[in-house]
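Risk register update: the risk of archive-format incompatibility is retired. Evidence:
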Amino acid sequence: MRDYQAELKHRIAFIQDCLASAGAQGIVYGNSGGKDSALVGILCKLACPDTVGLILPCRSQRNYEQDLRDAQEVAAAFGITTRIVDLQAVWAELERTVRTATAPTEAALANLAPRLRMTVLYAVAASEGRLVAGTGNRSEIHLGYFTKWGDGACDFNPIADLTVTEIYEFLRFLNAPACVLEKAPSAGLFDGQTDEGELGISYAKVDTFLLGGSVTDAERALIERYHKASAHKRSLPKMYGGQL
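Archived output:
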């Protein structure tokens, strides 16, 4: 049986080591109201009292309603400081400006939001001597289901080894509010969006594959296709190093 108490201790030590190595005194993370940000926020708060969660609504109505309420509920339950920064006006202006240079695709426009959020997170971190905590889980990282230089950018990530299934198990161990345990995973990039609906496969199937279980040939092929296509997201940019 998994020893979550020991695991909690090790993850807290990891976070504290990251802070010590960087000479940082605090942490900032994006508090989206979802499962991953909830777990990261809880772990960071236990490791560092000076942890701030930024709630960064943008574009979808869900961001301003359910997600915002859920983010506040988790923060209140674990004593995490929150700040709300409304990015809608900035996003709209950036969209207008981008359209002067190109005809952006819907995906390009959707990815503006996570990149704006990361810009704010790093501005706060740089101004207050904090590190930015990442909130991507193993399942998302394997599939490449994150925005490059957006929610994929961070100084450290305390949950990158955990599948979605394991995230939920850890949250239950920590007695996280039901709101984050019961809602469908969603990046919240637009109204009605869910991760599994967009991916075309459930996280349960992805996690089964990652943990060595049995999936269908079609499911395996889809997972491997996502993984291969997103390899560039998991690597540093290629650098020219002289004559090959």
